[in-house]
Design goal:
- The N and C termini lie far apart (38 Å).
- It is globular, with a radius of gyration of 19 Å.
- The chain has 261 residues and is mainly alpha-helical.
- The chain is built from 11 helices and no strands.
- It is 78% helix and 0% strand.
Length: 261
């Protein structure tokens, strides 16, 4: 779908979609609160299918909800800084409110995905992110190109499409957990909490810094040159991302196996 964007959308429209993606990705990654590292290092102590994995799913929801509140609040507070207030940013300003559901469902998607991966259900996240989502985006672009919808409706459908994986992974996580219980206090002793805080802090620094490195240039270009320039840059940047695609599937399953070992 990204390969078709330059032929269907204007530079400003491509830049608007790219900024929605980059801002929501940076904030959602940061406000997952290091849950990926926490899960990789701690889940083996909870894993027990017969007792609902000792309430780890409830703990995952607790961390996720806190992250959502902090992420949405941060965006509202720093909205002008993140998307700009210049005339060249008028299009993204008009749709900025849609970043809130994007942040919410991307946090759900990331946290539920690592939980499912630790249950050896790594294909589900890939299926939604790399197959269903791509098909939906392609269909949305085709419908827009055919003149059935305008760009405003394209944006709304784009946000819905990016929100679906988070919702689907949440429902799947509930079904995979089986027995839904609250975590017990003995699972969160003082030493265990100290380790969780440490893993969470490391996770925030590790994952957020890598995402910022990838996305900060798009935020800077939007602020300094405008959304049109960002549209050009986003297409060229995507060409470089293609080389990393083969490694994603290997990484998704390998981390769960290494963590258990």
């Amino acid at each position: 779908s990204r390969l078709l964007m330059p032929f269907i959308l204007t530079k400003n429209q491509v830049g608007t979609l790219a900024l929605l993606d980059s801002v929501s990705s940076v904030l959602s990654t940061f406000f997952c609160l290091g849950f990926t590292q926490i899960t990789l290092n701690s889940f083996s102590n909870f894993k027990n299918e017969k007792n609902g994995h000792s309430g780890y799913f409830a703990f995952a929801l607790f961390v996720t909800i806190i992250g959502i509140v902090l992420g949405a609040s941060t965006f509202i507070f720093f909205k002008d800084f993140l998307i700009g207030t210049e005339v060249s940013n008028q299009t993204i300003q008009a749709f900025s409110i849609l970043l809130i559901p994007l942040i919410i469902f991307q946090i759900f998607a990331k946290n539920m995905d690592i939980y499912l991966r630790m249950l050896y259900s790594s294909v589900i996240g890939t299926f939604w992110e790399s197959f269903i989502l791509k098909i939906l985006l392609l269909l949305i672009l085709i419908v827009f190109w055919s003149g059935v919808i305008d760009f405003e409706h394209l944006i709304y459908l784009y946000v819905v499409a990016f929100s679906l994986p988070g919702l689907a992974l949440l429902i799947t996580a509930v079904s995979k957990t089986g027995k839904l219980i609250l975590p017990k206090k003995e699972n969160f002793t003082a030493s265990a909490r100290k380790k969780i805080y440490g893993f969470g802090l490391y996770g925030i620094l590790a994952t957020a810094s890598s995402m910022i490195i990838i996305s900060v240039d798009q935020l800077m270009i939007n602020r300094m040159l405008g959304t049109d320039a960002l549209g050009i840059y986003a297409i060229m940047f995507f060409a470089g991302i293609l080389v990393s695609v083969p490694s994603r599937g290997v990484k998704r399953i390998s981390v769960a196996v290494l963590s258990d070992s």
